[in-house]
Amino acid sequence: MIRDSKAFVKGAILAVTFWGVMLAIFSPIFGTDANGKGLNGLQFSDNFFNTLAKGSSYFIPGLKADKIPSVSAEPVKLSYKLKDVKGEDPAKDAKLLANAKKLADMSGGASAMIIGDRIEMTANVKVLLEKAAADSEDMYNNDGLSFAGRYGVEEKEAKPLMKAWWNLLSGMVKELQKQGKNADAESVNQVIKKAVEPAYNFYGIKGEKVSERAVTLIGLLVFYVIYTMWWGFSIFFMFEGLGLSTKKAKVKKEV
Predict the structure, then answer these.
(1) I want to staple 185 with a disulfide (CB 3.0 to 4.6 A). Which of 119, 123, 176, 217 is the partner?
(2) Structural domains counted in the chain
(3) pLDDT per residue over 35-85, tens digit each?
(4) 3 state SS for 125-159
(5) Are 164 and 114 within one domain?
(6) Which domain holds residue 218?
(7) Which of 187, 172, 180, 166 is nearest to 66 (CA)?
(8) Are residues 100 and 215 in the same domain?
């Protein structure tokens, strides 16, 4: 059955060591998380790339300096349904609407009412965006305590409040476009994409720059390439040992 024992043994050793490394990767030996729980290799890698992603997603200063100042301070009337109010969970919808109203009312730039499943308000969009950017900065810096405290709630409510900011601003975009305020609508969209979403998605994660973790990054990428080839070579050598080869068979010449 085995035609080339040397090649087969080489492939078998590669296969065994491949699975040995796989076992190590799935073991909780790669540090601990914020709760002291051990991390396996995949969790470590995921956390590592999240820190790099967060480190390259800090655009709030630019928004404060360039986008928000250009927004009109003229009050506008808005009425719309929040995107995540879907009618499937009345209690959840009511909480989201209440949070959105709280953000609008306490921003100093709007007076809001809840009418059924819609929110109606007269708003100074510029002031709302300034407040949203300030709250997003706290969340981006993992200071949910300060953010939540401004609205009289516990830190555990920080992410639900940030989600309410996303809903409150997202609904404004089309409403402003309908009123011909396209530049302001684009500014709102930029605050959503570059402030609110990173603040929500990366809350609790430490941000790091690629330049600060270049060695680890290169090491992980090199390991990924080598580990992928590792399995491929193990199969190749074992098949070669069994006589299964991609080499073209020699043509037998007739005398």
Answers:
(1) 176
(2) 2
(3) 788 999 999 999 999 999 999 999 999 999 999 999 999 999 999 999 999
(4) HHHHHHHHHHHHHHHHCCCHHHHHHHCCCCHHHHH
(5) yes
(6) 5-52+208-241
(7) 187
(8) no
